[in-house]
Design brief:
By secondary structure, the protein is α+β, with helices and mostly antiparallel strands. It has eleven helices and 23 strands. The protein starts with a strand and ends with a helix.
């Protein structure tokens, strides 16, 4: 098979035009093409007067060696990801805690192998979760077990559904193929910045769950890992509590699962579990993470800045920006949502968190993104390994207070944030936060070093996107869940300091988004399979 890179096409084109361009480049006709597959697509907007698409394609021909010396052509071999089949036999079923991307794909691989995993999820299935989330977005009651952070699909379900990653791990092919089989568009496998959209992710999560169940996996929703037992430093039991929608005075119902393996795919917001693990002497470390705000602009302004005169002829524009403040801290955009909304993302009562979400069409009025500042373990002060959790909580409690203590978002115009005065009216940008907003002075939410970094960073970003630091850009607080505040170290067998306990994905500090978390889930499943061979 041949891969042809750097194929340049005008904005207006179709797949047949692309195929003709490839044939012309190689001097062949259509009869000679045995197969043709797009494997890469990106928009090159560096020259605003001549924005183009750039492609990579894979083709099969007879006598392929004749074409190897043509520029941008190379020979490749493709191999499918395969799962080794096993018999569970007398072995105990593995337990996976969490059904986000890492837990989902760990469960899928283990189910395909024949190991019949049990998936524990303290939240609800995605249909019921969706009802709870949108009810809360309107005027409903907050549910600490079923929200933007917790439930089937994890935090990524209510996001832009970005599938970008800095890794080129061979397991990514498995992730893409399963998402496509479950309902995602085929183009996610070749777009340079693929996304799914929260409206599509909901159905995709259900379809992958059904596949896992058909292979012998078992989902247990509203079942929370609350403790575990180990003998001779080896996992022996998972202790599970059945949770209700809201806390009540009823006696808590718990049960035990005998198991040799617990995969901790718990996500970055599983604070109760972090504290339980600490009590159980699981080794954890403080780690660097980031906090900040959501910034909103008109999507039309972002489109004009990125695409110039072609703004109306291309998909909603994205951006990825970074800067360094005078105090040495990194400031960067994260989880940019074109044509999206800012959403309530709290997972604890009395604490307010904001996040971003886009639907697959990315066609709403505003663009939003997190603007984050690095915070380091030395910033957290006293409090042991979980001091980062308490650092986040203090910011979230202050944001809740500034928003009026009813989950409305505290917002401020960027110009007023710089001046350190509370905003009194909006400009051109209307906040998209569904539960409503209250004007506040967000300088009161953060330590001064974060305020300084945000102000400097946003103004530096204006050099790359004119209007980014406009006076009426809307800030909302607090964005505090970009990554886990802890890392759970694992050894060469993927275990923590307890044999059979496998820290996995973003919550354990080994991923930073949907794709990298899913890849780590597959990797952890491979270690489980290897371990089971010796049991």
């Amino acid at each position: 098979m041949l891969r042809i890179n750097n194929i340049k096409m005008p904005i207006k084109h179709n797949e047949n035009d692309l195929k003709k361009s490839v044939m012309k480049m190689l001097g062949i006709n259509e009869e000679q093409l045995k197969s043709f597959e797009i494997t890469g697509q990106a928009i090159d907007a560096r020259n605003k007067n001549n924005i183009i698409y750039v492609y990579a394609v894979d083709i099969q021909l007879d006598d392929e060696e004749k074409y190897r010396d043509i520029p941008n052509v190379r020979e490749i071999e493709k191999a499918e990801y395969t799962v080794e089949k096993m018999e569970l036999g007398n072995r105990k079923r593995p337990v996976i805690v969490g059904s986000g991307p890492s837990g989902l794909f760990a469960a899928l691989v283990l189910a395909e192998a024949g190991l019949k995993p049990i998936i524990l999820e303290q939240g609800k299935n995605v249909d019921e979760r969706q009802k709870d989330v949108y009810n809360f977005f309107k005027d409903g009651k907050f549910n600490k077990y079923s929200n933007v952070q917790f439930g089937e699909g994890g935090a990524g379900t209510f996001s832009d559904g970005k599938l970008t990653t800095n890794t080129n791990n061979f397991r990514m092919q498995k992730i893409y193929s399963e998402l496509i089989l479950a309902g995602a568009e085929k183009r996610i496998a070749y777009m340079s910045k693929p996304h799914v959209g929260t409206d599509k992710l909901i159905g995709i999560m259900k379809n992958i769950r059904k596949k896992i169940e058909s292979l012998g996996g078992e989902y247990r929703f509203q079942n929370k890992l609350v403790s575990m037992e180990y003998e001779n430093n080896k996992i022996s039991k998972a202790i599970v509590e059945i949770v209700s929608d809201f806390d009540s005075d009823r006696e808590k119902e718990t049960y035990e699962i005998d198991t040799d393996v617990i995969v901790l795919a718990i996500g970055h917001s599983s604070r109760d579990t972090f504290y339980m693990l600490n009590d159980k002497n699981v080794k954890m470390e403080r780690k660097t993470f980031s906090v900040g705000v959501r910034i909103e602009h008109k999507q039309s302004m972002i489109n004009r800045s990125q695409y110039g005169k072609f703004a109306d002829r291309l998909p909603a524009a994205e951006y990825k920006l970074n800067a360094k403040s005078k105090n040495g801290r990194g400031v960067y955009t994260f989880c940019m949502c074109p044509g999206g909304v800012v959403v309530p993302a709290a997972s604890e009562e009395g604490r307010l968190v904001v996040n971003g979400m886009s639907y697959s069409g990315r066609n709403l009025e505003n663009a939003n993104s997190a603007i984050l500042v690095n915070v380091y373990p030395e910033d957290f002060g006293e409090g042991g390994v979980l001091a980062g959790v308490e650092f986040q909580r203090k910011l979230e409690e202050k944001a809740f207070e500034l928003g009026g203590s009813d989950y409305k978002a505290p917002v401020q115009l960027f110009g007023d944030f710089v001046k350190n005065v509370k905003s009194e009216k909006l400009g051109k940008v209307t906040p998209s936060y569904a539960k409503g907003y209250r004007f506040a002075n967000l300088n009161e939410c953060f330590p001064e070093y974060i305020n300084e970094s945000l102000k400097e960073g946003i103004q530096l970003m204006d050099r790359k996107i004119k209007g980014f630091a406009s006076y009426d850009a809307v800030l909302s607080a607090v964005e505090s869940r970009s990554s886990s505040p802890v890392k759970i170290p694992r050894n060469e067998k993927c275990f923590s300091n307890i044999e059979g306990l496998i820290p996995c994905g973003e919550g354990a500090g080994y991923a930073g988004g949907i794709m990298s978390a899913a890849v780590d889930g597959v990797r952890c499943a491979e270690f489980v399979m290897e371990y089971y061979k010796g049991l």
